[in-house]
Structures are given as C-alpha cells and as structure tokens.
Amino acid sequence: RRRRRRRSMVSLALWSTWTCLSAILSCFAAASTLDKPNVLFVIADDLRPALGVYGHPTVKSPNVDHLAKHSAVFTNCYTQQAVCAPSRVSFLTGRRPDTTHLYDFGSYWRDAAGNFTTLPQHFKNNGYFTASIGKVFHPGKPSNGTDDFPYSWSVPAYHPPTQKYKMAKMCNGSDGQLHMNLLCPIYNISAAPGGSLPDIQSAEYAIDLLRQISKNSAEGKSDIDSTDPIPREPFFVGLGFHKPHIPFKYPAKYLDLYPLSKVTPPEEPRMTIDLPLVSYEPWTDLRKREDVIAQNPAWPYGPLPYDFGQRIRQNYYAATTYMDAMLGEVLHELKKSGLSKRTIVAFIGDHGWALGEHAEWAKYNNFEVGTNVPLIVHVPNVTDTEGKAHMRNQLVELVDLFATLADLAKLPAPPLCPEKSADVRLCTEGTSFAKLLSPGTGATRKWKSAAFSQYPRPSDWPQFDSDLPSLVNITVMGYTMRTAEARFTEWVSFNHTTLTPGWNRTYGRELYLHKNGSHSGEDINLEFSSEYTDLIKILYSELRKGWRAALPPDDNSH
Predict the structure, then answer these.
(1) Of 70, 101, 138, 358, which residue is the catalytic one?
(2) What is the structure's pLDDT at 316?
(3) Is the pTM of this model over 0.85?
C-alpha cells in the first residue's frame, strides 16, 4: 500500500509539473505568435457613433457590439477633417491636414507635401503582407490613382466592381421609373447592375483572402517560394466599407428593421443660434439627388420637410445595419479560419455625418456630429479578458492610429514629427494610445487635453462649393478644438498659395459647452455671452498653441 501511495504521489507530482509546464509553454507560444500580430483595419465611410455600444436607442449593430465586448471603445475620438480624402490621408500618414496639404480631393501628398511613409507601408517595410479592400485610401488623385500601390500595398488594391454604379439610376420611384436618389433600398439585388452591391463584394473578397492566408500559413508558404507576394501571416489588411455613405443603397430588408414611427428626430434640428454663416454647410451633394430635388428645399438653409428628414435618418440607420452585417461575415471568417487569436482588429468611422442637427444633412463641418467618430480596438489577450466593452473617455484622434498600431505590433515607433517635416519620411503628429487599452489603469490614465480638427471654406457665407472647395478657392479655414468640457472654433483667413492661416483676420468664432460627457449642446453659440469672456481667452490661447501643447503629460511613446 505504501508503494502504491508513493507511486500515486509521484504520478500526481509529475502530472502537476507537466500541467504547469504545459501552461507555461502555452502562454509562451501565445506570446510569441503575437510578436508580429496580424492587423485587420476596418473603416466605415461617413459613420458617426450611431451604434448600440455607444448607447444609440434605435440603431441595430449586433456585430460591432459583439466586437466591442472584447475591445476598448473610445467615446471621444475625433477626425482631423470631416471629409473622406483629407481624413484618410491624415490617419494613414499619421500627419495632420496642414502637413499633408490635402484639404480637398485635388492632390497626392507625395507630390504636394512630402514622400511620407504610410501606416500600411510601415507594416510592409517590416515584413508584413499588406492588402487594401474597398475604400481605404480615397480613390483617384488623393492616392495617385493607385491607392498608393506599390508603396503601401503588397498587391494592387481591390475595388468592388459595382461601385462604378454609385451615380446610376437604379432607385425605384413612385412613378415606376428608376432614379438617381438619395434614398435607395434595393429590393432585388440580383437585378441591380452587376448583380450585387459594393460592400457585399468587398466582404466576399475579404473572406476569400482570409481563407487564402489561413491556408498558406498552414502550409508554411512564404514569399521566398514565389516571385509574387503571397497572402500570408503576418498581414495588415485594410477593409473599407462604403456604407453608410450616400446614396443609401443597401438591401431593402434592412429598412424593415426601422419603422418610421420608431425613428427619433434630431435633438438639435434648428440652425444654431448666433452661428457665424461661414460655419454653415448647405449639403450641396444631397441637392444633386432626384428625390431631394423633388422636395424643392430653399437655398442655402432649407429646410427639408420633416417627413423626408425622418426618412433620411431611417435610411442612414438601415445602411449602417447593412454595413454591420457585412462586418459580421468577415469577423466570423476571421474566427473560423483560426486567425482571430493573433489578429488586432481596429474599427473606425472616417468622420461623422449630420442627420438634421443644426439644419444640416452632411459632413463638411466642424460640429460634434461631423468630427466625433467611433473607434473600437481589439487586442487578443489584452482587451478580451473580461468579456465586456472597456469604455474609454479620454480624448484621442484618428491621427493617433499610426503610432498606436505600430506600438501594438512592436514595430519601430515613428518619432514625433518636427515643426517642419516635409523631408522626414517616417514620423507622426499623433500619439500612441496603447497605454489606454489596459483593462486596469487604461480608463483612468490622464491623456490629451484637447483634440483638433479643421475645415476649409471658399467664403465667409454659404456657396455651392462650401462643402468641398478646391484648394485654389479656399480663403477661410476653421480650426476647432475639443476639450473635455467645451468646443472652441475660430474661422480665420487662409492663404491657399502659402498654405498658411492668417490669425489676425477672423470671420467667426464659436463656443459650445460639453459637460458630463455630453456630445450634444451645440444649439447655441456662446461666443457673445459675457459670462464666458475669460474662458474664450483661455481656449483661444490653447487653440493657437496647437496640438503639441495638448500632448499627454507622461507621453513617452516617441
């Protein structure tokens, strides 16, 4: 019996030792696979934080919400300019619009500003396979007509073929004819031009690519075995969904989820009191759509009929849920293929979109609804430890993404850009917020004191090109700063030849208070209130000092 007891004790000890050793080896293996984690970087076009995880009472976004349960969710993230190309070039180069010199759609930063290394290029230069699907860079001239291939991408960018029908007459009208409408639910996808829709095609392509990467990784294939780039790990895949960008073209089944009776009206539907006219954006792009033209809105302030405005909100929400469904299919494949455990997922909107707030119906502004965007970051073994969303209220900016993703992937950190950086290929004007992802101290860590955005105008009053003036027509620049409790905006003269602001000439000023984490409260401009004279002086000084003076107090990321 003593011998049997001894043998049992020895077996138990060996089993315990082996169990501990296995756990250690397992943890070591998990850590080593994340030495070069994959990155899936997802961008939704024109997406404001109208999502379930952000507390929206109406929008159904189950897949974004599920991702958020295993991620850090930032409530105070801001774009640097509320329009596609300048925003994307900014966060993909890690530099702000006054450095990229892109305020419109008319130039390529490598020619107009400097041969700046991009976010995907940095990953590619460090051994990653990089691929672009859908709308990542803004297509056309802002990315040299190639989506910055071959600098940024290992293979040419994929664009869904049906995107070429963006301006096509394919929307059913009450007259039985097809129209180029703003509101465009598609009742028969197979009968649509091309037999599909752009985001469906982008999701399908992404799924096929993930399967190919998983297969090649399992077979140990690498670029050494081929003269052409092989889809493999580690990878950086940029996936850009077109929705909820206008036109609101999506499978009609998603419209059924939003009865008009359940769609709430905008909180601040009237034009902001004491708003300087230079700030107003007359939603020119919507006025090109046949169903909007039929409403006969007055120029430049409208309004649109209440019922039609509610239908715009309804269709925006339906288009958002459609995008969410496509994201869900891709994330499902990421997990099914076995890649999710070693893949960082970052999900953003490139800028916001006004849904009737301030009597506006587009982006192209410096309001909260134009600049505030969703930002969700999932890091395996870091943000998924508690099975719930880690909400973060610190001020962060899209320009921070370059430094953050490089930090999380343990790539060489881009240094902070000097004041003049045209000749500096690798640097950033953002800050890595990787420290904020920690489930423990991330929520309470002190961070930036302000976030900065800007928007150009051709005049100090609304014109037909106020939404997107060409560089040669820009005469005014609106610089806006968001602090924890206020938004302050100064509209000043701008020299489009020297690309410099003239702070001695002001065309308008705005002050709004955002207390207790509120994202509303921009219905009355407080600039003329004597109660806030001292506050305005302080905020003006901080705005002039700029983003460098607002960096985190303990930032050692550069």
Answers:
(1) 138
(2) 98
(3) yes
